Amino acid sequence: MQRFKALVASKDETGQSLAWQELGEGDLMEGDVLVRVSHSTVNYKDGLAITAKAPVIRRWPMVPGIDFAGKVVSSSHSEFKAGDAVILNGWGVGETHFGGYAQMARVKGDWLLKMPPQFSPAECMAIGTAGYTAMLCVLALERHGVKPGNGPVLVTGAAGGVGSVAIALLAKLGFQVIASTGRTAEADYLKGLGATEIIDRAELSKPARPLNKERWAGAVDAVGSHTLANALSMTKYGGTVAACGLAQGMDLATSVAPFILRAVTLAGVDSVMAPKPLRVEAWSRLAADLDRAKLEAMTVTRPAADVVALAPEILAGKVRGRVVLELG
Fold first, then answer.
1. What is the CATH code of the structural domain delimited by 129-268?
2. Rounded to whole angstroms, what are the CA distances from 145 to 132, 171, 327?
3. Of 147, 208, 193, whose CA–CA distance to 174 is shortest?
4. Which residues are CB-contacts of 47 (< 8 A; sequence separation ≥ 6)?
5. Which of 1, 30, 280, 320 has its CA 20 to 30 A from that of 73?
6. How far apart, in whole angstroms, are the C-alpha atoms of residue 314 and residue 319?
7. What's the predicted TM-score (pTM) here?
8. pLDDT tens-digit readout, 124-182
């Protein structure tokens, strides 16, 4: 039986512990596709899981990691065969089912997507859940009629993973992008991705007025709390805000004013349980609309062993763009 390395999270009366362990195929959970994992990544949610700052992990012991890319070793699923290059985002992997911080994974084939041929495994994990979520947000704006001619689009948490990919995508599609960040030293980085204006996140971090001056036609918000409330209060008539994160908090202290006086739409974006057709659409659009040079510019590559040290850094907002983890 093949042996492999995995990061295992355990819990007892003293709290959560993490250790790299050697496992065998028999230790893996149920599924109809066995994958040799070559790459993973670290998202904000992974940071929460590894640091135990939020109850992301709901089954113990657990292999964290909500993303992975690799090749099929064996499959009884009709859609996949040995040798297929595949990716996985979400579906509770790393939460209730062993995830991507291991050299092998056994999962349900219905959770997998075939890797777009335009991308390498490393590029797919440079995108990861953060980038795939950014694309879902862009799709939500498009479906609600937000167009470049309507005005600029705000991106909050701009130097993070979702924000970085969202800026690159929106700029490629012809939008003017206003990037909100607490790291104003990253202005050149954000402008290199396509942002046309940089604002300090402090402008959006305090309690919001019910309505404020109209500034943008839409927004991609990964922050929540007061930031989301302010984004709504400054959205132009008929605009849309796509909400996908909670870096500032889960609360939302706002009023109905933006919705009933400006016909603003708040579009919730979930990446974990998104249906497969929407996932396929998102990855197809990423292949068409994400500038690979900009993807490379926002990405660093690290060995998987670094993920425990990276987790608190991503929660503290110290990780810029995207991190690819090598599982080899």
1. 3.40.50.720
2. 20, 17, 41
3. 147
4. 53, 310, 311, 312, 313, 314, 315
5. 280
6. 5
7. 0.97
8. 999 999 999 999 999 999 999 999 999 999 999 999 999 999 999 999 999 999 999 99
The DSSP-derived string for 38-76 is EEEE--HHHHHHHHTSS----SSSB---SEEEEEEEEE-
Residue 32 main-chain phi, psi, to 5 deg = -110, 5
Would you list the domain boundaries of the chain? 3-115+298-326, 129-268
Structure tokens at 34: 């066995």
Helix (H) or strand (E) holding 326: strand 322-326
**Strand arrangement, sheet containing 177-181:** 197-200, 177-181, 153-155, 216-221, 235-243, 265-268
For residue 61, cis peptide bond before it (omega within 30 degrees of 0): yes
CATH entry, 3-115+298-326, from 3.40.50.1820, 3.90.180.10, 3.40.1650.10, 3.40.50.80: 3.90.180.10
272/251 Cα distance (integer angstroms): 20
Tens-digit pLDDT profile for residues 258-299:
999 999 999 999 999 999 999 999 999 999 999 999 999 999
